[in-house]
Design a protein that fits this description.
single chain; about 30% strand; 19 strands; six-stranded parallel β-sheet; about 350 residues; Ubiquitin-like (UB roll); alpha/beta; globular; Elongation Factor Tu (Ef-tu), domain 3; 3 domains; Rossmann fold
């Protein structure tokens, strides 16, 4: 049986038990404590902490979430450190980080694989314990064979009573995680750890929604749309889903939006392709350019502050969306939601 240790947050006095094979961040989240975090995989630095007492094992000392100044000050990342004794830590906690559904670790059996494009697949896993409680737009960590550390992928479905976890994922040519995932076959089992993420659907907000996705970032945008369709009290909310791909053959997501069975003027899909040569070769007559430019053209900067913005995709896309929305259109920060992945 795996040993566990008591971890105390110095500022608040809160304590939680953390297994020796679990990250301090995730142990705290499992206990319902609002430890600060974002990407959960060492890239963003949102879960920095100081070790006041005790001993920890650092799984990734070169994680990009720590800069040289952090290292000099003895900062550590809670998503990369496991306890080796009882410990006292100094770390930011906030009510907004208290999980709505405490994450769990469980085995998931791969039940279905479906190709959406030449390099994008849908995967459906069945949890061994029937657990499938998460908010639309959240993500889970998949622990894949031959890959060290969990890989973060967003769910494309919504929380359910069937124990299913669905993902839409694009194969990254040199990505260890996606290459291992795309080698799985139906019937294989992996460990899933979730849910996590702060870019989940705010069901108490009545503003119309703009979703902006690229690559595997389609998954949480579809989840958001499905969440709106299923939520009580959001019957009048419109969802504008913009999805960017390299060429027309890389596009997907429109069928998933149509499957919601909602009025065409309430759940609207806007595809964009970014490579003119691929668009011309395919006879594409839709928008050509970066997806954030399409958002600017169709929605208008002056109208964006009237919307809730959700976005997920490659870092350059996220940076461009943030420039357009937060800086150019002056959308209030609390209306923009995204998770920073490595």
């Amino acid at each position: 049986m795996t040993a566990s240790y008591k971890v105390q947050v110095q500022q608040t006095g809160e304590t939680f038990e953390c297994a020796a094979d679990d990250a301090i961040l995730r142990g705290g989240q499992r206990a319902g404590i609002g430890l600060s975090y974002d990407c959960n995989v060492g890239g963003c630095g949102s879960c920095k902490f100081e070790l006041v007492e005790g001993e920890v094992e650092n799984a990734w000392e070169e994680a990009p979430g720590l800069n040289p100044r952090d290292i000099k000050r003895g900062k550590l990342l809670a998503c990369q450190c496991r306890p080796k004794s009882d410990a006292v830590i100094k770390m930011i906690t906030m009510d907004e980080f208290v999980p709505k559904n405490n994450p769990q670790r469980f085995m998931g059996k791969l039940e279905m694989i479906r190709d959406l494009t030449s390099d994008i697949r849908e995967f459906r896993f069945q949890s061994e314990n029937g657990f499938s409680a998460f908010q639309p737009g959240q993500y889970a960590l998949l622990n894949l064979p031959g890959v060290e550390g969990g890989r973060a992928y967003s769910m494309s479905n919504i929380g359910n009573e069937d124990g299913t976890w669905e993902f839409i994922i694009r194969l990254v040519p040199n990505g260890k995680g996606t290459n291992a995932l795309f080698k799985l076959e139906e019937g294989d089992e992996i460990e899933i750890d979730g849910p996590y993420g702060m870019a989940y659907l705010r069901t108490d907000v009545s503003r119309d929604i703009v979703c902006i996705g690229g690559g595997s970032g389609l998954a949480p945008m579809i989840s958001i749309a499905r969440g709106v369709a299923a939520a009580d009290g959001m019957d009048d909310v419109k969802v504008h889903l913009f999805y960017g791909a390299r060429g027309p053959e890389d596009l997907c997501g429109e069928e998933e939006m149509k499957a919601l069975g909602q009025a065409a003027d309430r759940f609207i899909f806007y595809p964009a392709v970014s490579i003119p040569e691929m668009a011309e070769a395919a006879g594409w007559t839709g928008f050509v350019g970066f997806v954030h430019e399409f958002v600017r053209e169709r929605m208008g900067e002056e109208n964006l502050p009237n919307h809730e913005i959700y976005t997920c995709g490659p870092p350059p896309m996220i940076n461009a969306v943030m420039q357009m929305a937060a800086v150019d259109a002056k959308v209030p920060p609390l209306q923009i939601h995204y998770d920073s992945f490595l």
